[in-house]
Specification:
The chain is mainly alpha-helical and about 130 residues long. The protein contains 6 helices and 3 strands; from the N terminus they run H-H-E-H-H-E-E-H-H. It has helices spanning about 20-25, 30-35, 45-50, 60-70, 90-110, 110-129; strands at about 45, 75-80, 85-90. A hairpin with a 5-residue loop joins strand 2 (about 75-80) and strand 3. The protein is globular, with a radius of gyration of 19 Å. The N and C termini lie far apart (about 70 Å).
């Protein structure tokens, strides 16, 4: 019996590699925020996510959720009730990627004083040069 071929690792540097689209979904502004917001593993309604993620439009949140769902990171559950009730949660794969994204987001938040200082230094250097 033939063995199934092993899945190949992605190559982000290859122009046509589908891993680039996954990277875009995960690292987009809204993708990062959705993954971090869902990191608890609890089911969340669309309206809850929209309230928590300041500045995201309904359209962008819907597109972000669809992209993450397509990549297997988010599970969407539609409940057969009136009015419609849809909720979202991370899959096992989604919890893994959310952990990595959360580390980056946490580092950025913790490093903001140093980043702001570097920005101010850079601004002072460019205004005198």
């Amino acid at each position: 019996m033939a063995r199934p071929s092993a899945a190949r690792r992605g190559d982000l540097f290859a122009a046509e590699c589908p891993s680039r689209q996954v990277l875009q979904h995960v690292t987009s502004r809204w993708g990062v925020l959705v993954l971090v917001a869902l990191r608890s593993g609890e089911r969340r309604r669309f309206s809850e996510l929209r309230r928590e993620i300041g500045g995201v439009s309904e359209k962008m949140l819907a597109q972000t959720l669809q992209g993450l769902e397509g990549d297997g990171f988010v599970e969407r559950t539609a409940h057969p009730v009136v009015p419609p009730h849809v909720d979202y949660r991370l899959t096992r794969l989604g919890l893994q990627v959310a952990g990595h994204v959360h580390e980056l987001a946490d580092w950025i938040e913790a490093s903001m004083p140093a980043i702001e200082h570097a920005r101010a230094q850079r601004g002072a250097a460019t205004s005198t040069g």
